[in-house]
Amino acid sequence: MWRGVIVAYTIVIACYLSVAISGFWAFGNAVEDDVLISLEHPNWLIAVANFMVFIHVIGSFQLETCGSS
């Protein structure tokens, strides 16, 4: 079981690092705290990404409130 946990965390770390490195390569120090603000176009992609963030927040809020009872 621990081997599976270590493999899973290694995969997650690899994903985060690849996104972080490519984001720094693309934007440098000019990136805002919210990466979606740094993007200027296409507008439809920014709108879809913001909607996905909204769905994620709604889902995590429900899980958080159910677990605190």
TrEMBL record:
- Its domain of life reads Eukaryota
The positions making up the signal sequence are none
The Gene Ontology CC terms held by the record are:
endomembrane system; plasma membrane
Q: Is the Iron-sulfur keyword given for this protein?
A: no
- Cell membrane as UniProt keyword: yes
Q: For this entry, list what GO says about its biological process.
A: amino acid transport; auxin-activated signaling pathway
InterPro entries in alphabetical order: AA_transpt_TM
The UniProt entry lists membrane topology as: Multi-pass membrane protein
Keywords on this record?
A: Amino-acid transport, Auxin signaling pathway, Cell membrane, Membrane, Symport, Transmembrane, Transmembrane helix, Transport
**Location of the Amino acid transporter transmembrane domain:** 1-64
Q: What GO molecular function terms would the record report?
A: symporter activity
Compartments reported by the entry: Cell membrane; Endomembrane system
The residues that cross the membrane are: 6-31, 43-63
- One of this protein's Pfam families, by short name? Aa_trans
Write out the similarity annotation.
Belongs to the amino acid/polyamine transporter 2 family. Amino acid/auxin permease (AAAP) (TC 2.A.18.1) subfamily.
Cited function:
Carrier protein involved in proton-driven auxin influx. Mediates the formation of auxin gradient from developing leaves (site of auxin biosynthesis) to tips by contributing to the loading of auxin in vascular tissues and facilitating acropetal (base to tip) auxin transport within inner tissues of the root apex, and basipetal (tip to base) auxin transport within outer tissues of the root apex. May be involved in lateral roots and nodules formation.
Protein name, entry field? Amino acid transporter transmembrane domain-containing protein
What is the species listed in this Swiss-Prot or TrEMBL entry? Crotalaria pallida (Smooth rattlebox)
Source organism lineage?
Answer: Eukaryota, Viridiplantae, Streptophyta, Embryophyta, Tracheophyta
